[in-house]
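Notes, p. 3: input format for complexes.
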Amino acid sequence: MARRWTNTLTHADVTPEAAFWNRRQIIAGMAGLGLASLAGGAEAQVSEEVLEPNSWEDVTSYCNFYEFGTGKGDPAAYAGRMTTSPWSVKIDGLVDRPGEYDFQQILGEMTVEERIYRFRCVEAWSMVVPWNGFELADLLNLAGVQEGAKYVAFETLYRPEEMPGTAYRVLDWPYREGLRLDEAMHPLTLMATGIFGKPLPNQNGAPLRLVVPWKYGFKSIKSVVRITLTDQEPPTSWNTANAGEYGFYSNVNPEVDHPRWSQATERRIGGGLFARREPTLMFNGYEAEVASLYDGMDLAKYY
Ligand code: MTE
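Output follows (303 residues plus MTE):
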C-alpha cells in the first residue's frame, strides 16, 4: 500500500510562515521515509491546503522537456509521439551486475509508494507534486554498486525522429545529469514512475524519471535510459551549456542567486496572477535531512 503523507502539526507549529513551511516539508519527507511517527504525536489541526498538490492540469501542461521544444506547452503537445514500450535502462560502469534492465522487470522488483514533494524549478516557480516511485538506492543496489563508485551519471532517451526539439542544439543531446553517490543513495531521492497514482505522462518523463527534491528541477532528468556508476564527476547538459549559471550541485539555496535573477522567492504555479511570492527555503525545505551531505562545503562555490 502506498504510504501517504499525514499531517501531524498543531497551530503552534505554524508561525512564522517560513518555519511552518519548513516543518511541513520536513515532515512530508519523513512521512515518505516512514518516520512520520517520530515527528511527534500532535493532533492534526492545520488545514491540508498548504501542501495540497497542484492540479493534474498544472503538472502535465506546464513542463520542461527540451527534447520536445523549449516552450512550457511543447512537451504536452509533442511528447505523445515518444514510444515508451518496450523500455529498458542500461546500468553500467562500476556495478557488479551491469546490463539492460527491462522497465517492467524493474517495476516488479521495486516497492512503489507515493511521496508528495515540493518541486522548485531554477526559473523560480514551484509546484507540489504527488509522485509515485521507488528509491533510486533500491535500483542501484539491484545492480550492486562497487567500492570505487563515487558518482552516478544519467542519460535520457535520444531519438530524434520522435523528439522534434533535438533538431536544435540548445543542449548537447542526450540530456545528461549526475549526482554524487551519497546524494543518489539518499532515501529522499526517487525514481518516479507515476503522478497522482497514474503512470507518468510522456511530457513528465515516462516511463521513469529522477526526482531529487532538494535540488532545482533540472536535475530531475526524464525518460532515463542509462545509469552509469563512475569515479569521476560526470558532465551534465546544463553545466556544459552554461557553467556560470548551472553548477553540478544545483541545490535549492535562497542565498545563492542565479546570475540573472534572485533565488530568494518563488511563485507557485496555479496560484493565480496575483498570488504572493513565497520565500524559498534552504534545500527546498529538506534541510534537516540533507544539509549534512554538504558539511564543510562552500555552497556559493559548489552551486
Ligand atoms: N529532462 C530532460 N530529459 N529534458 C529536459 O529538458 N528539463 C528539466 C527536468 N528534466 C528536462 C528534464 C527541467 S528544467 C525541469 S524544471 C523539470 O524536468 C521539469 O519537470 P516537469 O515538466 O515534470 O515539471
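The two ends are 37 Å apart (CA to CA).
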